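Hello,

I think I submitted the zinc ion job twice by accident. Can you confirm which output corresponds to this input? Input:
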Amino acid sequence: MRHELDRGTLQSSIRAAALVFVVAWLFSDDLRAWIPVWLPIVILLAAEVEFVLRGRTERPRHESRRVAPGPEDADLGFGELVEDDDGIRFVPPPARPERARRRLAWAVGGVLAAIVVALAVRSDRAATWQALSSDDRAKAETRFTAEAARIAGASVRVRCDDGYSFTGAGSDTLGIAFPRSGLTYLDPTVCRRLYDLAFRGRGSDERTIDSIIVLAHEAVHLGGERREGVTECLALQAAGPLAVRLGLDEGRARRLLDAAFSSRLAERNVIRAAYALPSSCREGGALDRRPGDSRFPF
Ligand SMILES: [Zn+2]
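Support: Only one job matched these inputs. Its output is below.
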């Protein structure tokens, strides 16, 4: 009995730990980036299989030791002795609602499992760059490289920073350019959003346009521009055609870029001062690459 109890406790602990891990995995980008989803599932499955196999090889417990309470147990509190016209009679306790309870446990477990699966499916849609196959990643980098070269007007290379060597997970450094070697590293989340748009036709919100602006921004740096404000201004203008080439609807791209432009104009805090757009960054201004089209930035 003692042995069985320990096993039950151990199994429950493993299940609880696996559940905690899965929930943490769902809500942490860092965990998702480093640990594939099948790992906890395999561990849990292996634990279940081990328990089943071990249970089978063990000697069965003595059947005779499990007997329902009878009259001799009455003084231990099981059932009760009732006296009526026929004499003293033993009334057994009502059967515990074992089945109903087990059914309820299954139902609760089923609902929990459904919730976990739904969350997993949702998180898959916002999946990571690392989750893509190496073929897909290589294809995507080739495409980003071609687009960056077009904007830079030079031969350049775009790499996605898989290991966060340069971009730092969680930091706001989304891209870094090395103009002398014509190389730029993009944050993996940026790469994934660009990939989703270019290869899966997915994503048309602010995060998508921001990722497009990051690629354009680093490409402008690779073209030789070092001033951040000027670079961002040129990136905002290059981002429109780039977004359309990657598959974004033109009207949608205009609206998103108008919003991005406005929010950057409104940004006047000290930390971002070096990135502030110059006053010539406007329709007809010195930095307007298409003056006279009455549209800015796209
Ligand atoms: Zn920059």
